[in-house]
Amino acid sequence: MLRNILVLGAGKSTSYLLDYFLEKSNTEKLHLTIGDINPNAIPKTVKDHPNCTVIHLDILNNEHREKAIKDSDIVVSMLPARFHIMVAEDCVTLKKNLVTASYVSTEIKALHQSVKEAGLVFMNEIGLDPGVDHMSAMQIIDNIREQGGKMLLFESFTGGLVAPESDNNLWNYKFTWNPRNVVLAGQGGAAKFIQEGSYKYIPYHKLFRRTEFFEIEGYGRFEGYANRDSLNYRDAYGLQDVLTLYRGTMRRVGFSKAWNMFVQLGMTDDGYTIENSKGMSYREYTNLFLPYSPTDSVELKLRHYLKIDQDDSKWEMLCELNLFDGKKTIPMENATPAQVLQLILEDSWTLDDDDKDMIVMYHKFGYELNGKKSQIDSNMVVIGENRTHTAMAKTVGLPVAIATVLILNGKITTPGVQIPITKEVYDPILAELKDYGITFKEYEVPYLGYNPDAVGN
Amino acid sequence: MLRNILVLGAGKSTSYLLDYFLEKSNTEKLHLTIGDINPNAIPKTVKDHPNCTVIHLDILNNEHREKAIKDSDIVVSMLPARFHIMVAEDCVTLKKNLVTASYVSTEIKALHQSVKEAGLVFMNEIGLDPGVDHMSAMQIIDNIREQGGKMLLFESFTGGLVAPESDNNLWNYKFTWNPRNVVLAGQGGAAKFIQEGSYKYIPYHKLFRRTEFFEIEGYGRFEGYANRDSLNYRDAYGLQDVLTLYRGTMRRVGFSKAWNMFVQLGMTDDGYTIENSKGMSYREYTNLFLPYSPTDSVELKLRHYLKIDQDDSKWEMLCELNLFDGKKTIPMENATPAQVLQLILEDSWTLDDDDKDMIVMYHKFGYELNGKKSQIDSNMVVIGENRTHTAMAKTVGLPVAIATVLILNGKITTPGVQIPITKEVYDPILAELKDYGITFKEYEVPYLGYNPDAVGN
């Protein structure tokens, strides 16, 4: 008898997820049911697979949703995060396990006790970031601890970028995920982390100037800027006493310093709408943020305002985006500056059909073992196949899919609302991910920390 | 028979207000009742005046509040703005006129129809800013229009500063009003204004670098930075078609550029609390916002981070505030950066007993009359007497007091929730303010606007 997996939401990040279930459907005896509001968008190869059923499902229709969940053996929700709670509540009532790639919300967390008492597994944050980062970090951290080591430093950076072979713009960047999240990244509060035992805070308008650099063998140099709250997983990872805790986002070198121009101008602001945005040219939009002058050009005003020298490559980066174009116009009414910036960037940073994306992840683990300080750097690079089978869809979808089958097969059994930070979860998943080319390289490097000689301050 | 004026809240801005009522109490037949939660703080000369009664009043006690309002002929609320609505609702029910110096809130505005139907006058925004700014601006604007002129430009700036004779710090600034509002000034959204028909937006982190300069005869140079929304009174003033509309805050030259250091560091942020703030030294606080270094001093890190040259006077301005002091400590637990900055500034910027404050206001009116463009600049300077009888208390309290008596005497009669922008209100009040030395000087200057030759862009 087939086990029925219900996947809710078949958006662009689900290509590898659906393929995995269907490829395993005979050996693992799986039937896949996909519930989506727009089933037409699901590829024919998926829809027509003998072990697949597609149903039109409006997630807000309680009767239909409950029926679909009732008919399943396990539920995978790839819906936008705000819909998870309805699904989760049904799963408690109908006693179904649940898998999502999203952050654990307060509402989901509140279900922990009832999920546990029902003996159910609600596995969350099991995509890329969060997901692969948790698993790959905890495997090494647990290993260091098992040997008797004490953690001193943990840093972790992830980036969704364009692959070198498709990298043909000055920003070395294209959108591989939700563009709106990229435009708004870092907003909503100061970044917070710990370095050598000192708390550090960076306001948004300085965030993109406080980068660190990394080298990945074969891929060159990258940079990282801090996430909002690096201390989020301090307790979950058991790193309460660590001296340095820093999490961030990776970009190609030079991106952040150039992005900072948008921040300084105020173009990333999503808090107000521009008067008469509709029909405004890109040039007029740029001029909104510059002092008035009856004679000086928008170009010179911007160069002067942001102190961009004649020979600064940031200038070419702006020109490449057509920010000074007087003909291209904004189609939206009452748009915020951030919405317009997103539109302008999408003109230039959208993946072409045969473009490949690239996921990079970089961890640093500093620790003390037998009186000696050491450091392990580990990194992962995954290149996508094309615009549908992206590295992003692969690294998000496969951990979700593998976890789902492991739960079905009774290999992951610890009940409750959880994230993938225990051996039971990360060992089998990381092992299977290797078969798909999702692997980490580890390097033993000298431990430097930020204070090798333990000087004051 | 005496008319009973009820003043609710006798805080530090009410010295001139109370004195005015008592000085006029015999000629105008006034009795003053002061309701305050802490009557002990009211000066003896006020309390012991034969025409004054002081009552202990908890504004949240409905019975006591209603009784006090019922016994009065007119109510003046000098309470924190959030309490006005309770008082206003009682005033509607009990049919009493009301005067406040606060901005018209949405709730108060919603009472307009019932206030109007009851034939009552609710006069708001009749302090300094808002207040004197409305009246002095509208008197000139109405006058220009009466002559057939068309407004082209309106700019208005106000500042609460320290008088030249008490100005003994490098910032040329001391707190003359709520220090918290000074620390948070400009936050909560981009500044918005119009220059020569073009909308302009300035994000918070650039606000203090986009200043304008003014000269006031006998007082030297000042600078102004934009208020959050310069377009707030566009409709009320009838300036829908004006080319330039800009409202702002005045400081001594150099203040804003130096204040920008706090903004850049992130010290004005009120959105998160600092871990272990209690007992932290001023030096450690400063270091929270700087990159970690095992060897470099906090001083050098800050100079490098903010690009402060060896000979830049901004450096002395920071040192004067003891920002690098390792002995002075923060007494508050879980303080926000802004709360700590306020504490540090209060150490240095609190008025001494015999210090005098200074209020400055500067308006520019550009207009076209009979085919000719002209401009009037008008400014006001008021110097305080001491720390109690401040220029701030005078310029806030006297317009409130004068308006109250005018309403009592039936000279201001237009019913409804209103602000002082009509002749009926501003003419008699501005005339009487002159007797107290609150006067504007007017200068006819060439109209330059921002675009004297009407060049494009």
List strands and helices in order, with pairings.
The structure is a homodimer of 457-residue chains.
Chain A: E1 3-8, H1 15-23, E2 30-36, H2 44-47, E3 52-56, H3 62-70, E4 74-77, H4 84-94, E5 97-100, H5 106-109, H6 112-117, E6 121-123, H7 132-146, E7 150-162, H8 179-184, E8 191-195, E9 198-202, H9 204-207, E10 212-216, E11 220-226, E12 244-252, H10 255-265, H11 282-287, H12 298-305, H13 313-320, H14 337-349, E13 357-369, E14 372-383, H15 391-408, E15 416-418, H16 423-435, E16 441-446
Parallel strand pairs in A: 1-2, 1-4, 2-3, 4-5, 5-6, 6-15, 7-12
Antiparallel strand pairs in A: 7-13, 8-9, 10-11, 11-12, 13-14, 14-16
Helix pairs in contact in A: 1-15, 3-4, 7-16, 15-16
